[in-house]
Amino acid sequence: MRLIPNKRAFYRMAMEGKFGNVPRMWWSYADFIADGSPFVTLGIRCIRPGSKAFRPFVVCDMVPQVVSELGLHDGDFILSETLPACDRVLQGEISYVNGGLVFFYTCNNEPMRYALEKDGRHAYGWQAKELLRKHAPPSEAENILDLLDTYSCGGIYETCIEITIHDGSIPFGIYPWQSTIVWEVRQY
Predict the structure, then answer these.
(1) Which one of 15, 26, 114, 121 is most buried, counting C-beta atoms within 10 A?
(2) SS3 of residue 129 by DSSP
(3) Threshold 0.85, pTM exceeds
């Protein structure tokens, strides 16, 4: 049985702190407002099965309008803090594929989707581990590898973890002292 059956389960587990440092998230705009968070921009992610709708860097006051334009309703989306301008040191997707460790990564400082399209590279096996350990603080690198081992269930499932490691100059996420951000743990 998959431990993360869908996006909704991932976000629930992320909000419970199961994956390390993830962006702060809210189930609705009302939850965000009630929290009194100081963020200027948010990401809107649709969590309907099969949807890939995502809008990053939405000015907070515009969230209700953008949600409406996307045709979303409470329960269809989550809001999350967006990573402000900082130096992204390493980012990408690390996974086990056919039993082997693969890291599709970039050192490009743009948002991950664009950076990987421009100059994504692959590292395999021990080279992937060393790349992660070279750029992330030791405990954070081990946390990522432990997450991968835990959620791939010994290689039974192909689990993918999306991460960004930044220079640590800005506090971000539910553990703001960490410089490694887990954006997603996918098993679905």
Answers:
(1) 26
(2) helix
(3) yes
